[in-house]
Amino acid sequence: MSEQLAPEGPEREEWRSEKEEKHTGEKEQEKTHEKEEKPSDMAEKWRRDPLSAIVLAASLIVGGFVLILDNLGVLFFRGNGWAITLVCAGLIVALGALVRTVMPEYRRPLRGSLILAAVLFGLGLSGWIGWGVTWALIIIGAGIAILWAGLRRGS
Fold first, then answer.
1. CB-neighbour burial class of residue 75 (10 A; exposed 0-12, middle 13-18, buried 19+)
2. 0.70 cut: is pTM over it?
3. Per residue of the chain (155 residues), what is the pLDDT tens digit?
4. How far is CA 20 from the centre of its chain?
């Protein structure tokens, strides 16, 4: 392989500026190319973690149906549409956490999902059974989550 030697004198300055222009042009093309190919952050997140998208979509769809049925007077829980929606959303988030536990390809930390599930479930139940029982159920749920995490680490 032969190396191209730099010319001497004033030709050297011309050669250097041509080389810098070429290098700068290549960098700009590379940046433009990277910007064009880069998908949006949300699209990348859903591609990497489709379970989160499924949980969110299912929560919204079920919640919408429950609220429609409540407004049409179809449900026997007349007037408790939001409570039912929150309980269903909590159950869906908890089911998503369970799927993450069982399926290795979807494993991620579960604390946030379990806390969200407990909050949604608790807010929904508070409309039916009162805060005293709701807080007791949340504490029981937290204990079960801690026990589950401890047993999972041990195995």
1. middle
2. no
3. 545 565 666 666 665 666 666 666 666 666 665 555 455 665 665 567 788 889 999 999 999 998 888 888 876 767 788 888 999 999 999 999 888 888 877 777 777 887 888 888 888 888 778 778 888 887 887 788 788 778 877 66
4. 44
